[in-house]
Amino acid sequence: MSARPDDGTTQRRSIRPARVFADGREPACLVVLQGQRLGQRIDIGDQPLVIGRAPECEFQVLERSVSRQHSKIWREPSGYRVKDLDSTNKTFLNDQPIIEAELKDGDHITIGSCVLKFMDRSSVEARYHEEIYQLATVDPLTDLYNRRQFLELLEKELARATNHRRPVALLIIDIDHFKAINDRYGHPAGDGVLKRVARTLAAHAREEFIIARIGGEEFAVVLPEHKVEQAAEFAERLRIAIAEHDMDATGGGPKNCTVSIGAAEWLAGMTASSELLRAADEQLYRAKQEGRNTVRRTGA
């Protein structure tokens, strides 16, 4: 998957060579063989990698059977070690419960239903697993997260926001009159519009934002640490940027397009991500009803 200079999200998601330690060794990594984020690669750096259910863990496993801080992996001069952090349901190494143990290339670590493979060097196999992860989680047309991965990441962000009592907002963005674009200019031109809207979203988003294509012409952005008022301000800047962007890079397509955006905030009393999605979707419907090419938010 190639990175483009104007698409920060794609750059963040592209496969990068693992960095090298001062002693010349490449960092070891874990690859998810079973469980959430199947195929994902996690590099083990200078700092210990804590695995658990708590949002502050470097690798979070959202399961009740997993303790808040379940286990820890770290690097020593002689190699890597894994330690169980007094978890309720134990950490298993190659199907055997452990308190602390040395890790060897190819070892399997089981935490709840999550199975991780330890690899002592950056390898072709690790990159293969990363490639599979990309295929499972990324929309191939826009290089943004797909709907399935978006919903998983949204759940994680809402859990973090709830635990730390921090705000989080959601935007749902829909391209206006997209069917008419396809009907008039053809589906290849419509695909071009989708790509350019996606690049505009990525170019304006902060590093911590979660951006996804969740439907045919529908996108979503999760904004951690944002109240709905701040999210609506960002949405307005986004709306203007898309309206002013040249959508017809090759000729034969529409010169411009507009979007309608609905914004909502995760509020006290909400218990499911579907409630936040519904709130943002209601505001998107309101934006459509009130003339399109506009932003509407809850509480206004």
SSE topology:
Blueprint: H1 8-13, E1 29-34, E2 41-43, E3 49-52, E4 59-60, E5 71-76, E6 79-84, E7 91-93, E8 96-98, E9 100-102, E10 108-111, E11 114-119, H2 124-137, H3 147-164, E12 168-175, H4 178-185, H5 187-204, E13 210-213, E14 218-224, H6 228-244, E15 259-265, H7 273-289, E16 295-297
Parallel strand pairs: 3-4, 15-16
Antiparallel strand pairs: 1-2, 1-11, 3-5, 5-6, 6-9, 7-8, 7-10, 10-11, 12-14, 12-15, 13-14
Keywords:
disordered N terminus; 300 residues; alpha+beta; single chain; six-stranded antiparallel beta sheet
Q: Could you give a short account of the major beta sheet?
A: 6 strands, antiparallel
- Largest beta sheet: strand ordering: 2-1-11-10-7-8
What structural class do the secondary elements suggest?
alpha+beta
Gap between N and C termini: 41 Å
- Which percent range describes the beta-strand content? 25-35%
Number of helices: 7
Overall pLDDT score: 87
Strand tally: 16
Order of helices and strands: HEEEEEEEEEEEHHEHHEEHEHE
Instruction: Give the low-pLDDT segments.
Output: 1-18
* Rg: 22 Å
Could you say which overall geometry the principal axes of the C-alpha atoms support? elongated
Helix content: 25-40%
